[in-house]
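U., I forgot to send this yesterday:
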Amino acid sequence: MTNRDSILAALVATVWGVNFVVIDWGMHGVPPLLFAALRFAVILVPAIFFVRKPDVPWRFIVGVGVFMSLGQFSFLYVSIALGMPPGLAALMMQAQVIFTMLIAAGALREIPASAQFVGAILGSIGLAVVAVGREGHVTLLAFVLCLLAALSWAVGNVISRASGIRGGVGFRDGLGITVWSALVVPVPLLALSLLFDGPAAVGQALLSFSWESVVSTAYSALLSGLAGYAIFNTLLAKYPSSAVVPWVLLAPVAGIAAAWILLGEQPNAAEMLGGATMLLGLFVAQRAGSRRTPVILAVPPQREPVAD
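Result:
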């Protein structure tokens, strides 16, 4: 990756790390599935009227929407609502780094450099150190839902990467995928919220929507969602997954720092040691990536037609 793109990846990861704290801060009194639906409604409108559809087949757009957006955030928001602490959620979600590398190796034949895989393993060890050192009890359901969110994100990463291999998308198409993939998200999330929370709870939440929830929704939708995923999808289109996804290991470090600064949650020794290990893993992975591009064993040579 170029220095410019590396800086962009680091900025996106930082924004995403802070987002976990912002979600927890603004979701009080709002059903989680409704909160997620509002996030994607804000991403969708009015942007869809100004951003053209990306020049990739619809199956990629829908796939990104279903896995990177609908699946990831429905599982994540419910997990946080069930008691998953935002700092620990930021850590758990980084399982997507290993998931993405494994799925990309099988589905896209992208074989990461050995040092990149070692870097990802180091990052995972750092995650485990922090997770073990955190205080508090998390229910098994909240834990499993957060892990499913990470898996769904990883599948979405690979679909986004596949669209880039096949279509050669740039930033405009990266933004387009982010906006147009949101088409398949708000209505199913709202329907699920009405089903599980009930119309009365949904209506009450909308009528009593606080300014904290407004700020949280705006940050999550516009900065973390629209800008963050537009950049991330563009990078996935330009580089192998193993060169991009390790940067997200910065997110939990940013999340822990944000919780310390904004919420007064001072990190303990395990969190500091684990955070340092994650940064070491990122350094190893990116140093390897700067010297050797992962092998791509099979890449379609031409653009597919847009119409399926």
